[in-house]
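Open question from group meeting: does this chain pack into something compact, or does most of it stay loose? Before anyone orders reagents, we agreed to write out a predicted structure and look at it together. Recording both the input and the output here so the notebook holds the full record.
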Amino acid sequence: MQYCTFYLDNKHFGIPMLEVQEVMLQQALTPVPLASGVIRGLMNLRGSIVVSIDMRRRLGLAPTEKEEDSIQVITQGPLGLVGWMVDQMGEVADLDPADGETPPGTVAASSRELMKSVFQLESGLLMVLDGERILEMEQERTESA
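Structure tokens returned:
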């Protein structure tokens, strides 16, 4: 299985390539009043409205100073198009899902519950995120607010 990988705060993350529609440079965002802090805004992608999620905030990482250098990984979710704001793109990793392991206890619990698995690569740990879970939890937080 292929994974689209990216970096947040020098940590290596990935999502299944089948979930990725496209990758693009940061676009102008329209703020959404009263939205959760992880929702950075909306953008227009060839006539489609895309919700942009700040993955640093979502994973409890420190904010970046160079937000304008961010990259959007556009995914198709149950609620439509979603942009994942990331620091830097990685490579496409071709990995056997059976080789994935349970996220270790050293990973913060708030991040661990958003991961499907982790892979030990020569370059370090690749943490595979669960895109649906990230969006479900965000929707739950928004609805309970």
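Observations to bring back to the group:
The first strand starts at residue 2 and ends at 8.
Helices lie at 55-58, 109-112, 131-144.
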